[in-house]
Amino acid sequence: MLGTMRARVDNWTGERQQLITQLSTVVDDAQSLLADLGHRAQRSVQTLASSARRARAGDKGRRKTARQPKGMAGGLERKSHTLPATARRKMANKGRSG
């Protein structure tokens, strides 16, 4: 019985070592991919920033703020204005009396 337990423990230890080796390989690969992605992302951000600077340099005579024209403010989601109930009643009464 002691020999069987010893064989099982040795087997588990071997499997554990294999698992540790596989996991460290996965971690190393993931770290290198993340580092590569970080460098690519940094280059993309730098490219976007430089193109934005060039675009701003060409806009010298234009408006500096990014305001929308009055008619477009709020866009399609804008809530339409409703009159107060008292004003609606007055308008309705004027239409009936005239």
Structural overview:
This protein is mainly alpha-helical. The protein has a domain at 1-53. 70% of the residues lie in helices and 0% in strands. It has two helices and no strands. It is elongated, with a radius of gyration of 35 Å.
Please estimate the helix content. over 70%
- In whole angstroms, the N-to-C terminal distance is 109 Å
- Helix and strand pattern: HH
Percent of residues in β-strands: under 5%
Total number of beta strands: 0
Shape: elongated
Distinct helical segment count: 2
| Average predicted confidence as pLDDT | 78
Structural class, by secondary structure, is: mainly alpha
Any low-confidence stretches, pLDDT <50, length ≥5?
A: none
Radius of gyration: 35 Å
Biggest sheet layout? none
Keywords for this entry:
2 helices, 98 residues
Topology diagram in text:
Blueprint lengths: L1 H56 L27 H13 L1
Question: Gist?
Answer:
The protein is mainly alpha-helical and 98 residues long. Helices cover 70% and strands 0% of the residues. It has a domain at 1-53.
